[in-house]
Write a structure and sequence with these properties.
225 residues; alpha/beta; Rossmann fold; 9-stranded mixed beta sheet; 11 strands; 18% helix; binds glutamine; phosphoribosylformylglycinamidine synthase activity; Class_I_gatase-like; nucleotide-binding; glutaminase activity; EC 6.3.5.3
């Protein structure tokens, strides 16, 4: 099992993702986007960062790179794909998931720990947790506000594709616990197939006991096993 962590110009969490996966015993390698997707890829991470300086909209430029066509095909075939932060933005811009990530309600870059409620525990990304469990993970973004049209949001809920919601420490989903103004406090969603997921918080920054005071992100990354 080798996970490909795709590096675009301006990605800056690709090494962190490889290290976190490594720590969990999952073989992972960085791949420069122009080199294309290796044929034998068993999983894909779109890592965080500022691809192309967030020019136009965060993720909009990387979404148009040819490698994304191969990633869409792989996702359609059921290869696990995880988009983290800028990777979530790229995932939305390339239609791997519905919705869009736009400027935070605060109009500021926010770097802090947040709480997330696990909305579904029956997916590969969350089967290490209980439904309703509260995780603590860091966010670091300026464009993390999940926005989606009313009908598309209704579909998302009807199809049970909301994976995580921002909440308080007790699991209450409130406006106060919503760091960026996301519709429905949505922090992470599934794509058309459950093997595709994106989230704004950083599980790879909450996976190594030596560098993080909490390792709640491990369960999400373990999905690749
Ligand atoms: N940590 C990241 O991936 C940064 C996300 C993104 N470029 C933003 O600021 O919105």
């Amino acid at each position: 099992m080798t996970v490909t962590v795709v590096q675009f110009g301006g990605s800056n969490c690709d090494r962190d993702a490889v290290r976190a996966l490594d720590h969990l015993g999952i073989d992972a390698e960085r791949r420069w986007f122009e080199d294309g997707l290796p044929e034998d890829t068993d999983g894909i991470v779109l890592p965080g960062g500022f691809s192309y300086g967030d020019y136009l909209r965060a993720g909009a430029m990387a979404a148009r790179a040819p490698i994304m066509e191969s990633i869409r095909t792989a996702a359609g075939d059921g290869t696990p794909v995880l988009g983290i932060c800028n990777g979530a933005q790229i995932g939305a811009e390339s239609r791997l998931v519905d919705g869009a990530f736009t400027t935070n309600a605060s109009a500021r870059f926010q770097c802090e720990h947040v709480h997330l409620r696990v909305e579904r525990a029956d997916t590969p990304w969350t089967d290490a947790y209980e439904a309703g469990e509260v995780l603590r993970l860091p966010i670091a973004h300026g464009e993390g506000r999940f926005e989606i049209g009313e009908d598309a949001y209704a579909d998302l809920e009807a199809d049970d594709r909301v994976l995580f919601r921002y909440c308080d420490a007790d699991g209450n989903v409130t406006d106060e616990a919503n760091p960026n103004g996301s519709t429905g406090n949505v922090a992470g969603v599934l794509g058309e197939r459950e093997a595709t997921a994106v989230l704004m918080p950083h599980p790879e920054r909450a996976a190594l006991p030596d560098v993080a005071d909490c390792t709640d992100g491990q369960g999400i990354l373990r999905a690749f096993r």
